[in-house]
Amino acid sequence: MAFAAAGDLQATRFCGEVTARDSRALGIHWVFFPVADVNNNPDNPIINIRSYGENPQTVSTHVRAFIEGARSDPKTRVLTTAKHFPGHGDTSIDSHMAMPSIQSDRTRLDNVELVPFRAAIEARVDSVMTAHLAVPALDAPDVPATLSPAIMTGLLRDELKFQGLIVTDALEMAGVAKGYANGEAAVRALEAGADVLLMPPDPEAAIRAVVAAVRKGRLTTKRIDQSLARVLTAKQTVGLDRAKLVDLEAIADVVNAPEAAARAQEITDRAVTLVKNENAAAPLRNAKDAAYVILTEGRYSSEGQSLTQELSKRGASVLFALDPSMPDSELDAAAQKASVSAEIVVLAFASAGAYRGNLALPGSFPKLVDTLIAAGKPVTLVSLGSPYLIRSFPKSPRTSPRTAPWLRQR
Description:
By secondary structure, this protein is of the alpha/beta class.
C-alpha cells in the first residue's frame, strides 16, 4: 500500500526488479507476489497493507508494474504470483483462522475483485495462488475456492484463460484444514485444478492420498501429467534446466545494494500521507520539546527500535517506548508525563499478521490514546502500519498514517 500511496509506478516496477535480483542471488526462483487483492474492507485483518489499495484500477496498475519489473531482466527474472484468487480483500476474517465468505454477486466480482487478476494474466504472470474462502456466487457456500473446480478450472482456466501454475495457499490454514482432512484436501485441490500443493499439514499423508486417488481412478495420470508439465515449464523459464546453484561469494555484492536502499527511502518519504491537519498544527511548532509516545506491538518486537534511536539522535527529550503488556499504572504514568509537554506525538505500530484476527491497537493502548487526546494538548497520531487505524480515533485533531492513498491531501 505504501507504493500506491507514493503514486509512482516506476517505483513499483523497480521493486519488482530488486526483488527478482536479490531473490535470484539467494537461489530463490519463485516469489509469492504481487498481492492482487483489492482491500475494499477496512476491517480486513490479513490483507490490509499487503494490498496496493481499495481501488481496482490502482491495484491493477501496480500489480502489472511489479510483474513487469520482476521479469525485466532474463538473467535474474523470477516466477511471479498473483494472489489470492478470486480475491481476499472484501473479508473481515483471517483465512488462517477460519473460512471467510465473499458475499458479492458476479457483477461486483467482475468489476472489483477480478480486475487485478485479469491485469496480472494479461501481464503474463507465472502463477496464481488460491484463496481459502467461499464465494457463493460461484460455488456452494461451504466450499473454499481452493477446492472448487468451478472457480479454479471453470473461472480461472476456462474463462480467464490462465495457463500458468496454480498454487494453493497453505493447506495448513484453517480456511481449508478445519473442513477437510489433510489427504482429502490435497486430492480435492488437484481435482479443482491446482498444480502445486503448498504446505499440507502432513506432506507424506498428502502424497499417499494423491497416489491412492490415482490408483482408484479418482485422479487420472493425465491430470497429474498436466501439472507436471506446467511445473517443468516454469523451471525451464528461470533456467533451472541449465543452472541450479548460486555463487555464494557474489551474494553480498547483490543483496542490500546501496542504490536500492536509497530508492526505498525515497519511496517511503513519498508514501507519508497527511490525512487531517486541524488549525494547520503540522509541522510541529517545537519538535524537540514535544512528547513522543511510541506504541509497539509487543515487548519483544523490533518495531519501534530504530524509530526510538532516530528520535533520540534528533534531540527528542520526552520519549516513551511502550508495549501492550505493561500494566495500566505504567501507561497512566506515561500519559501524565507526556501531557506536561505542549505537543504530543503518538506513533502507533499496527501491522497485518496471520492469526491476529484484527488490526486494533492491543491491550490498553486505545484507552491511553483517548486519555492523551482528552488532556487538551495538540496530539498528532501517526500510524506506522495500517492506515485504517486512524478510524478508531476520530477526535485526534491531526492524523498521519504512513500509507493511505485514498485519503491523500496535497
